[in-house]
Amino acid sequence: MAKNVHVVPHNGQWAVKRPHAQRPSAILPTQGAAIDRGREIAKNDHSEQIIHRPNGQIRDSDSYGNDPCPPRDTKH
Protein backbone atom coordinates (compact mmCIF):
# COMPACT_ATOMS: atom_id res chain seq x y z
CA MET A 1 0.00 0.00 0.00
CA ALA A 2 1.36 3.40 -0.98
CA LYS A 3 2.19 5.84 1.78
CA ASN A 4 1.42 8.97 -0.24
CA VAL A 5 1.46 12.38 1.44
CA HIS A 6 -1.16 14.93 0.34
CA VAL A 7 -1.04 18.71 0.82
CA VAL A 8 -4.69 19.81 0.96
CA PRO A 9 -6.72 22.88 2.00
CA HIS A 10 -8.03 22.61 5.57
CA ASN A 11 -10.34 25.22 7.18
CA GLY A 12 -8.54 28.23 5.69
CA GLN A 13 -5.12 26.70 6.25
CA TRP A 14 -3.16 23.84 4.67
CA ALA A 15 -2.84 20.28 5.95
CA VAL A 16 -0.35 17.51 5.30
CA LYS A 17 -2.38 14.32 5.30
CA ARG A 18 -2.20 10.66 4.35
CA PRO A 19 -5.12 8.89 2.65
CA HIS A 20 -7.56 7.31 5.13
CA ALA A 21 -5.97 9.13 8.09
CA GLN A 22 -8.41 10.54 10.60
CA ARG A 23 -6.14 13.47 11.51
CA PRO A 24 -3.63 15.46 9.45
CA SER A 25 0.08 15.00 10.13
CA ALA A 26 0.44 18.80 10.23
CA ILE A 27 -1.68 21.92 9.79
CA LEU A 28 0.18 25.00 8.58
CA PRO A 29 -0.86 28.57 7.66
CA THR A 30 0.50 28.59 4.09
CA GLN A 31 0.64 26.14 1.23
CA GLY A 32 4.40 26.69 0.91
CA ALA A 33 5.00 25.69 4.53
CA ALA A 34 2.78 22.62 4.07
CA ILE A 35 4.67 21.64 0.90
CA ASP A 36 7.99 21.89 2.75
CA ARG A 37 6.72 19.74 5.65
CA GLY A 38 5.12 17.25 3.26
CA ARG A 39 8.41 16.95 1.35
CA GLU A 40 10.26 16.10 4.58
CA ILE A 41 7.71 13.39 5.42
CA ALA A 42 7.71 11.97 1.87
CA LYS A 43 11.51 11.83 1.77
CA ASN A 44 11.67 10.06 5.13
CA ASP A 45 9.05 7.51 4.02
CA HIS A 46 10.35 7.17 0.42
CA SER A 47 6.87 7.96 -0.86
CA GLU A 48 5.09 10.42 -3.14
CA GLN A 49 3.95 13.94 -2.29
CA ILE A 50 0.75 15.11 -4.00
CA ILE A 51 -0.03 18.83 -3.88
CA HIS A 52 -3.61 20.02 -4.32
CA ARG A 53 -5.01 23.41 -5.36
CA PRO A 54 -7.46 25.30 -3.09
CA ASN A 55 -10.35 23.74 -5.07
CA GLY A 56 -9.01 20.22 -4.38
CA GLN A 57 -7.68 19.57 -7.89
CA ILE A 58 -4.20 18.01 -8.07
CA ARG A 59 -1.63 20.68 -8.87
CA ASP A 60 1.64 18.74 -8.77
CA SER A 61 3.33 15.62 -7.44
CA ASP A 62 6.86 14.51 -6.65
CA SER A 63 8.14 11.03 -5.96
CA TYR A 64 10.80 10.43 -3.32
CA GLY A 65 10.73 6.63 -3.56
CA ASN A 66 13.31 4.10 -4.63
CA ASP A 67 12.58 3.98 -8.35
CA PRO A 68 15.18 1.77 -10.12
CA CYS A 69 14.67 3.62 -13.41
CA PRO A 70 13.54 7.16 -12.63
CA PRO A 71 12.61 9.58 -15.41
CA ARG A 72 14.69 12.72 -15.71
CA ASP A 73 13.19 15.46 -13.52
CA THR A 74 12.46 18.52 -15.66
CA LYS A 75 10.74 20.55 -12.88
CA HIS A 76 13.73 21.04 -10.54
Structural notes for this entry:
The protein has 76 residues and is α+β, with helices and mostly antiparallel strands. It has one domain. The chain contains 1 helix and 5 strands, in the order E-E-E-H-E-E. The protein has one helix at residues 31-45, and strands at 5-10, 13-17, 26-28, 48-52, 58-63. A 5-stranded mixed sheet has the order 3-2-1-4-5, covered by helices on one side. A hairpin with an 8-residue loop joins strand 2 and strand 3 (26-28). The longest helix has 15 residues, at 31-45. It is globular. The protein starts with a strand and ends in a 13-residue tail after the last strand. The mean pLDDT is 89.
Gyration radius (Cα, Å) is: 12 Å
Sheet bearing the most strands, described?
Answer: 5 strands, mixed
Continuous helix count:
1
- Gross morphology is globular
| Proportion of residues in helical segments | 10-25%
Judged by helices, strands and strand pairing, the structural class is alpha+beta
- Strand percent estimate: 25-35%
* Order of neighbouring strands in the sheet with most strands: 3-2-1-4-5
- What is the number of beta strands? 5
Task: Name the descriptors.
globular; 20% helix; alpha+beta; 76 residues; 5-stranded mixed beta sheet; 1 helix; 5 strands; 33% strand
Provide a compact summary of the structure:
By secondary structure, this protein is an alpha+beta fold. It has one helix at 31-45; strands spanning 5-10, 13-17, 26-28, 48-52, 58-63.
